Amino acid sequence: MPMLLFTRVARIALFACVLVLLTGCASRGGVQAPPDAVDLPRFMGTWHVIAHIPYFAERGHVTARYEYALRDTDKVSVAYHYREGFAAAEQLREARASVKSDSGNREWTLWFVGVVPAKWRIVEIAPDYSWALVDYPGRDMGWVLARNPVMDDAQYQDLVRRARDHGINARQLVRVPQLPEQVGKPGFGEPKGP
After folding, report:
1. Alpha-carbon gap, residue 82 to 134, rounded angstroms
2. In order of start, what are the domains of the chain with their CATH numbers?
């Protein structure tokens, strides 16, 4: 008799545990919680473009960098600085971004010229916020960003591997020259001008 009671209590306890797990999944719509959230204030500041999958708006640029400034809890000012050659004047493009908070601050919508939206997603970030991998979901676009303008080859190759693991077409990544001596080296893009 005591063994039968123990078995019945164990089955009820097991059923209760399964019910709690199923209720938790149903309340979240069966979707996993977002990955570790990006600390938005910590992400703000200057990020140098170490590499990117070139597209018309960034092809041929050197000394490229993004500067982010928090305007509100979910609004960001974006300034893209670049040159078309090391002897060329620095140019600036400005945008604003809305951050999707339920994405762990990883998914952004950037607005260029006030009306042209672009999706942007932080797929991985260093624990010390020294580098970040970014992509454009659904498009063949990706970026390797870093706080410092120069990255050693070992670190870069590790980030290329990580980018590939996130589905970024890493074979298309081209390094962006940040220093004149990088022009012409294997893997670096060519500037539009001198």
Report:
1. 18
2. 40-182 (2.40.128.20)
Q: What is the mean pLDDT of the chain?
A: 84
For 51, the token pair is 């590499």
Q: Under a CB-based contact definition with an 8 Å cutoff, are residues 67 and 46 in contact?
A: yes
SS3 48: strand
Pairing of strands 62-72, 174-175: unpaired
Question: Distance between CA 177 and CA 114 in Å, rounded?
Answer: 29
Query: pLDDT tens-digit profile of 142-174?
Result: 999 999 999 999 999 999 999 999 999 999 999
Tens of pLDDT along 82-108? 999 999 999 999 999 999 989 999 999
49 close to 133: Cβ distance less than 8 angstroms: no
For 174, the enclosing helix (H) or strand (E) is strand 174-175
Residue 116 parent element (H or E): strand 116-125
Alpha-helical segments (H) within the chain: 2-27, 40-43, 153-165
Joined together, the tokens standing for residue 68 give 């982010």
In whole angstroms, give the CA distance from residue 189 to residue 178.
10
